[in-house]
């Protein structure tokens, strides 16, 4: 545990000093250009892979970078309220759904019931990605090629969640008026490569 406290001391004496002026400028307001929706996976570091500074990304993270369908509810909706705030109050220019390789959440779609006994809320949450599994399973021979099944699930999940964003009336409105950009990225952990989903071509193209 002590390393967490050591980390703060290290931050205060190094990186914080380096960006002191930036933090001062950010002390009273934020003006992020992008809503980044990523997986909670510890290996995904949004500011690192986008080379952005504090103040640039408004970040939502959850298991498997999921966007719930738009609905009106009196429940406590974490992801939905953060999307609402980012779009309506912060007026972000971009919404980026970032999926990744070796995603445990996406893989769990294929897990057996036994595995979910201890994690009922995770199981329920993943229902929002279950249509992806159904699409993947329609591919001939997919269960004999687990690597292909994995990346296909992760990529289709990005597209699925981008589509869920469009169920939000205020996002749909901005999207058709070209007032907001929707992006889908697929990040490969071991190579650092990121593939950008080209909506017109329905294809992920490597950013280079
Ligand atoms: Zn993940």
What would the keywords be for this entry?
208 residues; Beta-carbonic Anhydrase, Chain A; globular; 11 helices; six-stranded mixed β-sheet; binds zinc ion; alpha/beta; 17% strand; single chain; 2 domains
Blueprint of the fold:
Blueprint: H1 2-13, H2 15-18, H3 20-25, E1 34-39, H4 46-49, E2 57-62, H5 78-89, E3 94-100, H6 104-107, H7 113-116, H8 120-126, H9 130-137, H10 146-165, H11 169-176, E4 181-187, E5 194-198, E6 203-206
Parallel strand pairs: 1-2, 1-3, 3-4
Antiparallel strand pairs: 4-5, 5-6
Helix pairs in contact: 9-10
The structure holds zinc ion (ZN).
In brief, what are we looking at here?
The chain is of the alpha/beta class.
General description of the model:
- The chain is an alpha/beta fold and 208 residues long.
- The chain has helices at 2-13, 15-18, 20-25, 46-49, 78-89, 104-107, 113-116, 120-126, 130-137, 146-165, 169-176; strands at 34-39, 57-62, 94-100, 181-187, 194-198, 203-206.
- It has a six-stranded mixed sheet with strand order 2-1-3-4-5-6, covered by helices on one side.
- Strand 1 (34-39), helix 4 (46-49) and strand 2 form a beta-alpha-beta unit.
- Residues 39, 41, 64, 100, 103-105 line the site of zinc ion.
